[in-house]
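Tutorial handout. Part one gives the primary structure; part two gives the three-dimensional structure as tokens.
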Amino acid sequence: MKTKLFEPYKLKSLELKNRIVMAPMCMYSSHNEDGKVENWHRTHYVSRAVGGTGLIIQEATAVTPQGRISPQDLGIWSDEHIEGLSELVGLIKEQGAKTGIQLAHAGRKAVLDGEILAPSAIPFNDEMKTPKEMTVKDIDETIEAFIKGAERAKKAGFDVIEIHGAHGYLINEFLSPLSNKRTDEYGGSAENRYRFLQRVIDGVKEVWDGPLLVRVSAKDYQEEGLDAEDYVLFSTWMKEQGVDLIDVSSGAVVPARIPVYPGYQVKLAETIRTGADIPTGAVGLITSGLQAEEILQNERADLIFLGRELLRNPYWPRTAANELNEDIEAPKQYERGW
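Part two.
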């Protein structure tokens, strides 16, 4: 009998071979500043597929040039990006993993020349640029960019789309009252602050019928900010819109001191899973197979998202399997050393 970690898991009709997910992590490696896939991306992602990860979610991929975190970010704002992304998808799938892409807009945390956008004209901190407060036209254009990004992701062959609503980037900025001081239909009440994400989800679902995830920062670590209970409400609305799983992270919408310890965000995932009755992914200092198995066995989350641990060890699934006395299939080429 397989452990939970190595049980298959279904997202809609998509079956993952295990519950191990490579969390999206920016590589800042598109050195020509054109947002295109380079050899680093091919090496980086495919090696984790060889290592046995069930689902690999590509780093935050910008839906507009203005929405990049840095000039070196991957992009999906142009049809010219599809060829490289499609090649990358094919390479990953060839090694047995499913593929996801995180559609993103950096908002006020973009470190770029020129104008940057945000819900309100408030800089992230004293060192960063003051953004332009988005007009309704800017909002409409950005939502359309997310939709076009989803269309291109579909053409490139991705299995899963994740919308980036975390870590202080544009969608998170709309959701949090700490960064959204608008007085129109996109600010004020929870319903209004959710409206931007609501429209993004609705728009993406018009062109995408595959599994849809949303990453959230379920705690602002500020007294006047949001906490997991606020995200239970948002996640209930997301479930009603047809989102399949909430990827639960935390922090980074404003500068804050975050108490970090093993599994420090798991309780947030558990709160949302229970409160909104929606599948969740747990992430954050999950480093061992035993730790991951405890989360799954106790139904605290449904998938295990790994970031830095997969940077350190592309073959973490094998390490976890050994720890849990679980036999997993080796790549044929590696059988003699597995």
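Part three, for discussion. The chain has one domain: 21-326. The radius of gyration is 19 Å.
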